[in-house]
Each structure stands twice: as C-alpha cells, then as structure tokens.
Amino acid sequence: MSELTTIARPYAKAAFDLAVEKGELDQWSEMLAFAAEVARNETIADFLDGSYSAEKLTEIFLSVCGEQLNEFGQNLIKVMAENGRLKALPEVTVQFMALRRELEKQVDVEVTSAVALEQAQLDAIESKLEARLERKVKLNCSVDETLVAGVVIRAGDLIIDNSVSGRMRRLSDALQS
C-alpha cells in the first residue's frame, strides 16, 4: 500500500492544486471519486492488469466515465495511463480528499462506543475535540459491544481509549511490569 501512496501523491497534489486554482474542489472531488470507483470495478481492473496500450486504456476508461470528467480530469486519466498508474486512482482520491480536509481545517474522527451515543454526548465529544485539535470535526460513529463500556476515539494519530476493556488492558500491563 505504501508504494501506491508514493505513486499517487504527485497526481493528487497536481489535481488538488488545479482544483484550488480553478475553484473546483467539489467538482474534482466528485470526478476523482467516480474515477476511483471505475478503477475498482472488476472488469476495468482486468483491463488495467492486462497488456493494453496507454491509448487503449485511456479510450476504455474515458468511454466508461463519459461525461463525468471534464477536460482536465480526462487529461489526468491520459497521463496516468501513459505512466501505467491507473491502478493508483483510488489512492489518488484518498490523498486528494486528505489535502482538501487539511485546506478546510477538517478532520474525520472515528468514535467507537459500547452502546449508541445520544446526540448530547456526540455534541460534547465534537466540541471538545474541535477545541483540542483546532479543526472542524466530522464524527463517524460505530458500536462495538466488546468494549464493555466507554468510548475509543481515533483522529489521525491521536487515539483516546476511555473504554473499560482498554482500562483493564492497561491495568493488566501495569500489574505485570
């Protein structure tokens, strides 16, 4: 995966810079998301794994994408096909969106709790994280009953484990040392 990340980085940065320059962040987000889904499609993935020429791959890819891509999006597909990098399109999209969130000072936060949280609890978590991270927070919530009670919050490299199972694990580690 790290190889795809390295491959995708310059394409994502170039697309992002162009989108910012033209004021088309929303349009580029949609185009890249659509192109990434096309690249993930099993039939298209078979073409990408085959020994087709860059021109043929571009033709196939653009015929599937149709009107979803503007001329700059089509140029991106052409350049990536010429360099044999179309398989990296999903990662390009991931990195593009990360650059966009950074520009917009937004962070996605995974909140895993033992039971479904009430809106007041979610609002409190959101406001405290926004103050701590100095960014707009978007909560993605899930339930994991194995936590017993409490929550685990993940925001990038930051992990706040306030679950009973996490506390028990830390207590066990402390007692064994």
Short structural summary:
Helix content is 63%, strand content 16%.
Report on the architecture of this protein.
This protein has two domains: 1-103, Peroxidase, domain 1; 105-176. The protein has helices spanning 2-22, 25-40, 42-49, 54-65, 71-82, 89-103, 119-133, 164-176; strands at 106-113, 136-143, 150-155, 158-163. With 177 residues, it is of the alpha+beta class. Strand 1 (106-113), helix 7 (119-133) and strand 2 (136-143) form a beta-alpha-beta unit. Helix 2 packs antiparallel against helix 6 (89-103) and helix 4 packs antiparallel against helix 5. It has a four-stranded mixed sheet. The chain is elongated and about 60 Å long. The model has no long low-confidence stretch (mean pLDDT 87).
What structural class should be given to the helix and strand makeup?
alpha+beta
Tell me the name of the CATH homologous superfamily of the largest domain: N-terminal domain of the delta subunit of the F1F0-ATP synthase
How many strands, which pairing sense, and closed or not: the largest β-sheet? 4 strands, mixed
Stated plainly, the CATH topology of the largest domain is called Peroxidase, domain 1
Counting copies of identical and different chains, the oligomeric state is single chain
